[in-house]
Design goal:
The protein is of the alpha/beta class. The protein is built from 15 helices and 20 strands. The chain folds into three domains: 189 residues, 3-Layer(bba) Sandwich (FAD/NAD(P)-binding domain); 93 residues, no CATH class; 106 residues, Polyamine Oxidase, Chain A, domain 2.
């Protein structure tokens, strides 16, 4: 029987395992945590089911949408999406509605933004240099005034110095319409042809973990072997093949072998697991792929809701607002939070060495409380309970050398004929869970061809190139 090991049961690994098992492959799924879902999972706290940060489902990929619908059935809720952004003390719709912002800001700021954008648009028509950094790319597209107002401080908050970030990040995270489209939105208030924001999103009734629990049930129905608490510690290889996977299960090393191996582990984990080790120059490339970490502060309040929005973004200076986004779990499903209570998620992305990771929960609450009160949604006396979750290796940093390092890493891993690295962390790809599912669907087709002897490395590299073109729809 055709056998495959899949490492990681997150938004890529578990869908891939399901599709392969459905085809009759003997699939072993190794997950180091005690539950499925990876970064996209949820956790229980008393009577609450809470995501590790909000995980809406929205996709423009029909195959991914169908996969999700088939898994969840009637438990897939459709929710109207309402998001805001705070600029200069006022709240505006997000993604930014240029017409609304122009009418809402003071006339001088509006004129300055309009002039800045107009000059940038005209200038870009005559320049072939669109900019290779996050800052230069967005400044060339919008002009310095708009860039400084909306994008600059947010970049510092979430990803770091925008002068040291690749323009690839802006292309993935900022959907920029053409000038005619922009004018249509400004003059008519029209959304334009290009969809850059979801008006409706989807969400599992019992929390995002429900999607992955249902997929796990389906996987086992197809006779797949799911092993939780299995931490991969070695990927043994010889010549051009991965010959054995060693995982620590219940405190003891266990050996797993298969015809084909797929890893959705972070690339740093792959590097440390390979035996023999990669060459020094390849190891350096692995190590030079950097990530940002996150602190999630959860605040429980004895109120039904704090605001009507799904998310609220805070791009203003870190010294004014130490968080970049607020959300309420109840905005996604009222079935995950007790009646007459709500839980606020406060997101703070930082360097992994930031001092915030040494703070206690109380110290973190005290640190953000003045800014939370400034939002107008919460007072200190409203706080009933609070706790934090601290997570590392979450956000890939698209610095100016990331592509060079990633190319070197993938070229090395491509030398293994029966191995694939995949997923958000396995491909250092800034994406959403629908993109992860799309990766899984492409991978399943490729692996099927591999067993039939009709696949090619160039075909898979072409697929990977398409993965780089994912654009996140807010």
């Amino acid at each position: 029987m055709k056998s495959v090991i899949v490492i990681g049961s997150g938004a890529t690994g578990l869908p891939l395992a399901v599709k392969l098992a459905e085809k009759g492959f003997a699939v072993t799924l190794l997950e180091k945590e005690k539950q499925v879902g990876g970064l996209a999972t949820s956790f229980k706290y008393k009577d609450f089911t809470i995501d590790f940060g909000p995980h809406k489902i929205y996709t423009q990929i029909p195959e991914a949408q169908k996969f999700i619908e088939d898994a969840l059935g009637e438990d897939l809720l459709a929710k109207p999406k309402k998001s805001k952004i705070r600029l200069m003390g006022k709240y505006f719709d997000y993604p930014v509605n240029i017409r609304q912002v122009m009418l809402g800001l003071n006339p001088l700021t509006t004129m300055s933004c309009g002039f800045s954008y107009g000059i940038a648009t005209v200038t870009s028509k005559f320049s072939k240099n669109e900019g290779n950094t996050y800052e230069s790319y967005l400044t060339n597209k919008f002009g310095p005034t708009v860039y400084n107002l909306i994008f600059k401080d947010f970049a510092w908050k979430v990803w770091g110095d925008p002068q040291k970030l690749s323009s690839d990040l802006a292309k993935a995270r900022v959907s920029i319409p053409s000038l005619p489209e922009m004018l249509k939105r400004v003059v008519l208030g029209d959304g334009g042809k290009k969809e850059i924001s979801a008006k409706t999103f989807y969400y599992p009734k019992k929390g995002n973990i429900e999607l992955y629990e249902k997929l796990a049930e389906k996987f086992e129905d197809y006779n797949g072997e799911l092993i939780l608490g299995a931490k991969v510690i070695e990927l043994k290889h010889k010549d051009d093949k991965i010959t054995e996977v060693i995982a620590e299960v219940r405190g003891r090393p266990e050996s797993f072998k298969a015809d084909y191996v797929v890893s959705t582990m972070p690339l740093s984990f792959v590097a440390s697991s390979l035996k023999p080790k990669p060459p020094v120059e390849v190891l350096n490339a692995f190590n030079n792929l950097k990530h940002r970490s996150i602190v999630l502060l959860f605040v429980i309040v004895n109120k039904d809701r704090l605001f009507d929005d799904s998310f609220i973004f805070y791009p203003e200076k870190l010294s004014d607002f130490p968080f970049h986004r607020l959300s309420e779990q109840k905005a996604f499903s009222e079935h995950t939070v007790p009646k007459d209570k709500t839980v606020l998620c406060v997101e703070m992305i930082r360097e992994p060495t930031d001092e915030i990771f040494n703070k206690t929960d109380k110290e973190i609450l005290d640190y953000v409380m003045p800014a939370l009160e400034k939002t107008g949604f919460l007072k200190k006396e409203d706080v009933a309970e609070f706790f934090t979750k601290k997570m590392h290796g979450i956000y890939p940093v698209y610095d100016l050398t990331y592509k060079e390092n990633l190319t070197k890493v993938l070229a090395y891993l491509d030398e293994f004929n029966n191995f694939m690295t995949l997923g958000r962390r396995g491909l250092f790809n800034y994406n959403n869970q629908d993109h992860c599912i799309d990766m899984a669907l492409h991978a399943e087709k490729f692996i099927d061809k591999w067993f039939a002897g009709s696949s090619s490395l160039e075909e898979w590299r072409s697929n990977r190139k398409k993965f780089e073109e994912y654009v996140i729809i807010d």
